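User: I'll paste a sequence; please echo it back and then give the predicted structure.

Assistant: Echoing your sequence first, then the prediction.
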Amino acid sequence: MNYKILLLFLLCLVNLNTINATTVTGMVFSFTEEETFYNTLFNAFNVYSRENNLNIDLNINILTPDNSTSAINSYGSTVDSLLKRKSTKYDLYFYYASYTNKYGKHLLDLNEYLPQEYINLFGEEILTCSTHDNKLVGLPITVDIGTLYSNTLLLSKYKRKIPETWDELIDTAQYILEKEKQLNNTDLIGYNGLINESSGTNSLCEFINSFRDSNSSPYPPLNSQETVEALEKLKDLKNKISSDSTFRSNDYIWYDCSCSCYWYIWPRHYSYSSTAKSYYNSFHY
């Protein structure tokens, strides 16, 4: 399915006056663990192209922390600079949806090139995240889901259930932290927050989203009462069961974590500890 999305993009590009060759070049930043996925995707498209005589060769420059000094933030700046300079080095850019408003004014309106029946296959929320100034400037290749994990060993030990609200999470974490402290376990963390330089914006947006009225409600505006309540609750979490330094800690220390009651992560195709259990409930206080 994913390579068919690429096919529609590339057929559009080949028919534009700005593209004079059958080689379409692109750039993507990938965490090392995702590199295999992108290579598989791009190779599958090139095989499909050859087998169907499309005469299109996809050549993607994959930047990872292992082969480049670029971090995700500097990659974003690089893309922004190339687009502002109207560089012709790349025809295709892969970027996080959070950059849509930043890049959108430089990108094509795919409504003019893709069949409407194909666009309609995507959900309204997906299209909203891919739209800038009423232009459809991209479509998703992957969808990441942030996940909140609980330490099932500790929950079982103290006969506590997985919380369904943020207040229940605070109450359970405080209880477990106090009990473990009595056993001289003073290194246990209640909740990691993940409000750091690399993932902080995503984590913050997800947290605010958990304060909407229902699962079907739209994302709360930044000046809404829901956002105010979300930020107050996030501060409450930090003050009661975490700390500033924990909230700012690096993503990677949380992918196999038995030192925390609860931890929030963004997927990077890691294996997770058997002590962890994920849950996708929309939290509210």
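The chain has two domains: 2-136, 147-279. The first strand starts at residue 23 and ends at 29.
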